[in-house]
């Protein structure tokens, strides 16, 4: 008997009296049918009890179905007619035998297999998992087909981002270098071969051109920005104006006296996004996500 309606392969709703438990409580029987759950053969004449929170198995019912039941001091086994183990459970502290389906990977459904390997490979996408299995790239990995309408809860949570602000109706930027968006990514968990752990990203708002510099420490941000300004001054034609504005968050690598003094000497206006509002610096934040 069970209170989970989804276990039933076929179910006929009918009143069948009440079930009395050891503590004297009673639950109504509202249906009867055939149970079919993963890794367990179909069980006929199963009872659907409204509000039952535990799944209970009748020993006499299993015996009538042709199964053999073996009890020992520590565990219990249910055997099929060919002596293969169908279910096995351990004895609990309150002297109950809690049965669990025998976990054999080859007997699991295809959907369960691909979910299991998806988690084992640190939530790799299902398409690449199928490719690995198809070409035998990993020893022991079976051939997996793509699961239809597959949605992984942890993957969805990990990819969630803050909602963006509404787009403006007009473009305020009319030429290159009028506004540069800057941000610092890191520290990365793994250093590069050169010992770099941070990435300084700068994006031109008009052209979306990107400059990236790899840093060992945050303190190198100003030196890289100064070098970028010098390169831009040398590379740009005289017809194109120099940098007018830059925008960043309130990170200490951007908001300091040295940075402010250098911007003032070049006539660059330094804008800051509001605290805890990355949407205002959305251009470079989106580039960070791509990178």
TrEMBL record:
Matches recorded under InterPro entries: GAG-pre-integrase_dom, Integrase_cat-core, PolX-like_BBD, Retrotran_Ty1/copia-like, RNaseH-like_sf, RNaseH_sf
Protease keyword on record: yes
Keyword Ribosomal protein in record: no
UniProt xrefs under Gene3D superfamilies: Ribonuclease H-like superfamily/Ribonuclease H
Record-level Gene Ontology MF annotations: nucleic acid binding; peptidase activity
One Pfam family recorded for the sequence: Pol_BBD
Source species, domain of life: Eukaryota
One GO process term, biological-process aspect: DNA integration
PROSITE patterns cross-referenced by the UniProt entry: INTEGRASE
Boundaries of every Integrase catalytic domain copy: 172-291
Entry keyword set: Hydrolase, Protease
Stated name of the protein: Integrase catalytic domain-containing protein
Organism: Acer saccharum
């Amino acid at each position: 008997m069970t209170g989970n309606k989804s276990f039933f392969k076929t179910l006929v709703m009918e009143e069948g009296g009440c079930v009395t438990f050891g503590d004297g409580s009673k639950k109504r029987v509202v249906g009867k049918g055939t149970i079919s759950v993963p890794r367990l053969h179909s069980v006929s004449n199963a009872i659907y009890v409204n509000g039952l929170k535990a799944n209970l198995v009748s020993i006499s019912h299993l015996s009538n179905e042709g199964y053999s039941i073996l009890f020992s001091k520590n565990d219990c086994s249910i055997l099929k007619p060919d002596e293969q183990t169908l279910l096995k459970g351990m004895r609990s502290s309150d002297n109950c035998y809690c049965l669990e389906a025998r976990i054999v990977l080859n007997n699991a459904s295809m959907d369960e297999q691909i979910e299991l390997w998806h988690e084992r490979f640190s939530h790799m996408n299902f398409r690449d998992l199928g490719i690995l299995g198809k070409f035998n790239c990993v020893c022991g990995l079976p051939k997996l087909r793509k699961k239809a309408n597959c949605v992984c809860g942890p993957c969805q949570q990990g990819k969630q981002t803050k909602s963006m602000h509404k787009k403006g109706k007009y473009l305020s930027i009319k030429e290159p270098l009028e506004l540069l968006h800057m941000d610092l990514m890191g520290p990365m968990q793994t250093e590069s071969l050169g010992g770099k752990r941070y990435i300084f990203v700068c994006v031109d708002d008009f052209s979306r051109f990107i400059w990236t510099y790899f840093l060992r420490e945050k303190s190198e941000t100003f030196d890289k920005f100064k070098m970028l300004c010098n390169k831009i001054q040398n590379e740009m034609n005289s017809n194109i104006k120099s940098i007018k504005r830059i925008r960043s968050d309130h990170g200490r690598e951007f908001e300091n006296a040295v940075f402010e003094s250098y911007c003032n000497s070049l006539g660059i206006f330094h804008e800051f996004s509001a605290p805890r509002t990355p949407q205002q610096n959305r251009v470079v934040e989106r580039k960070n996500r791509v990178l």
